[in-house]
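To the wet lab folks,

You asked to see what we're planning to order before we commit. Fair enough. Below is the target structure as tokens, and below that is the sequence we designed to fit it. If anything looks off to you, flag it before the synthesis order goes out.
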């Protein structure tokens, strides 16, 4: 990926900022961004695929418990999808477990529908990459059952092939025999041509090296590893995973790059989100002032409208593909502002120094392995 210097990006960044500001003053349902936010040579290779430097996560597209999804949101979600694709985003992350209760799999269904109904430039739709995750449910005990899970996702999305098929989490800590069956399931879905590339999620460095070696011996390249990666979870373990990915040639996909929203700067102790997130925010927000202050200072210097654009760009500058969640046009516009420029080395150091001052980090996924 090309690295822009501060002097060469200033004019472009100012124009991008004006584009976003103008679109907020007009009808949000019809935003228009004139300049490409990144160039074709800045795409990232994930195995045989070329994807945008940032993707979008769709956990909220069906999840009522944590994200308050309602089917009445679907029209705006389709506009979110269209706006993202119109501006070069071609990576969308989902999972067969995304959705609450009877809405299980709703995220995949919506993505499939939005792809079919996309009316943009000819050929763009064919380059959209769906990365979906298959849950390691306790009843998925054989490779064949895992392959069937992949086929069910294809049916929900009405696609012939998935871009990146990912094992959602490792069972090594509690069901190692199931883990081996799921690895064989990944091999089978790759060999059958159901997926173009294979990835994992919530794997620590040791288990990541094990599955990489196993798949490699079976002739299947492990192309991606998706883990929580943000300024709010900065630590030795996080960087250990990143270093392992770099050494093995695996692309790291960063989920929760905004710490479930804590790094957007929108929340305070007197303005907490509804639902289960409020408890976590109440514990972590009091110690985040140095980091939020640093994010805002850099945003101001960079003429960026939101501190979250800085937090996402840090993930990009660190060589990962962030996949922030989006469910509104405004969120999409704000996140797109993270593209088209790069933080300097000094700014990265400032942010990481500020992050390390936080007394509490984001909690790790319960399924994260060593």
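Sequence we intend to order:
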């Amino acid at each position: 990926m090309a690295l822009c210097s501060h002097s060469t990006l200033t004019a472009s960044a100012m124009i991008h900022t004006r584009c976003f500001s103008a679109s907020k003053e007009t009808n949000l349902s019809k935003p228009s961004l004139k300049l490409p936010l990144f160039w074709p040579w800045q795409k990232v290779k994930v195995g045989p695929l070329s994807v945008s430097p940032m993707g979008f996560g769709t956990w909220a597209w069906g999840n009522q418990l944590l994200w308050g999804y309602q089917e009445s949101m679907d029209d705006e979600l389709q506009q979110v999808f269209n706006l993202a694709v119109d501006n070069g985003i071609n990576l969308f992350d989902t999972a067969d477990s995304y959705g609450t209760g009877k809405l299980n799999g709703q995220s995949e269904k919506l993505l499939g529908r939005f792809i079919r109904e996309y009316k943009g430039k000819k050929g763009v739709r064919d380059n959209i990459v769906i990365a979906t995750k298959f849950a390691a449910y306790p009843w998925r005990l054989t490779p064949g059952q895992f392959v069937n899970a992949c086929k069910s996702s294809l049916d929900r999305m009405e696609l012939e092939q998935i871009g990146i098929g990912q094992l959602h989490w490792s069972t090594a800590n509690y069901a190692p025999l199931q883990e081996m069956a799921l690895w064989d399931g990944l091999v089978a879905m790759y060999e059958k041509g159901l997926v173009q590339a294979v990835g994992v999620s919530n794997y620590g460095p040791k288990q990541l090296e094990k599955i990489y070696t196993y798949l490699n011996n079976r002739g299947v390249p492990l192309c991606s590893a998706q883990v929580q990666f943000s300024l709010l979870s900065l630590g030795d373990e996080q960087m250990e995973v990143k270093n392992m990915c770099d050494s093995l040639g695996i692309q790291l996909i960063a989920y929760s790059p905004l710490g479930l929203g804590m790094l957007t700067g929108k929340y305070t102790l007197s303005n907490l989100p509804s639902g289960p997130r409020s408890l976590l925010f109440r514990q972590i927000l009091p110690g985040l002032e140095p980091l939020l202050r640093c994010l805002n200072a850099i945003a101001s210097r960079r003429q960026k409208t939101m501190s979250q654009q800085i937090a996402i760009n840090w993930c990009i500058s660190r060589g990962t593909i962030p996949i922030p969640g989006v469910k509104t046009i405004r969120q999409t516009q704000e996140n797109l502002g993270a593209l088209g420029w790069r933080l300097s080395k000094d700014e990265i150091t400032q942010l990481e120094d500020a992050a390390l001052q936080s007394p509490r980090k984001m909690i790790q996924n319960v399924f994260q392995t060593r």
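Structural context that might help your review: The longest helix spans residues 6-25. The mean pLDDT is 87.

Thanks,
Computational group
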